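Agenda item 2: magnesium ion complex prediction
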Amino acid sequence: MSDVAVRVDHVSKSFRMYHERNQTLKSAIMRGRTSVHEDFWALQDVSFDVPEGSTFGLIGSNGSGKSTLLKCLAKIYYPNKGTITHFGKLAAMLEVGSGFHHELSGRENIYLNGSILGMSRKEIDRKFDDIVGFSGVEQFIDQPVKNYSSGMYVRLGFSVAINVDPDILVVDEVLAVGDAEFQKKCFDKFAEFKRVGKTVILVSHSMESVRSMCDHAAWLNKGTLKAVGEAAPTIAAYEASLNNG
Ligand SMILES: Nc1ncnc2c1ncn2[C@@H]1O[C@H](COP(=O)(O)OP(=O)(O)OP(=O)(O)O)[C@@H](O)[C@H]1O
Ligand SMILES: [Mg+2]
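Presented output:
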């Protein structure tokens, strides 16, 4: 299977939704162990392959399951059914702030995040200047990241993720919060990844970005896969559904 970077195989993921409102401690104790909940399926029987070396866009409306799928891929969530397999080293840059410890400085978070992503201390020492340089947050590197702006968070997180030198880079909406200069840097980085045969999976609400960067795409709608394949027809199908919606 050398031509597949990621295989999503019949993946379903549910969350429990609880219905009690204004619950008091007393009422919770009186009711005992039973609780009112239903299963909400954020992903339902989703299957597709991400070709190795592709730049793969994951598109769909708010709440359609894109981030949930990326979290399953990054092993932050586990699917209730099905499996996700990836071939090669994977680094994920998920939602703003995820993976960062708010009280720690940018510097400390680089070490924390880098080690979570599998880098040794020595390796991080070596790459530290590159990471900070790419992020553009030098001036604030010893400030706690809780004082960072959303864009600064994303810049630092993304810089760590790309410096892990992964075979598969997974990014959730980094482009939306970055400014034009950083977006350009990201585009260039994605292009460089593509050139050397690495795989990029990205979520974006900008169809313009997906159209210009991605060769393949998958469209999720309410947790189910509506279309997958070459980017252009997949984007067109999604856009047509919005216009008819
Ligand atoms: N931890 C959770 N607990 C309960 N429900 C969740 C959880 N995470 C996600 N969901 C639900 O799963 C559905 C899919 O959410 P998800 O974040 O994957 O959507 P998305 O496609 O990334 O949307 P967006 O474009 O807004 O980022 C939503 O209805 C959301 O409320
Ligand atoms: Mg999301």
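Discussion summary: The pocket of adenosine-5'-triphosphate (ligand 1) is lined by residues 15, 42, 60, 62-68 (CB under 6 Å).
Owner for follow-up: CH.
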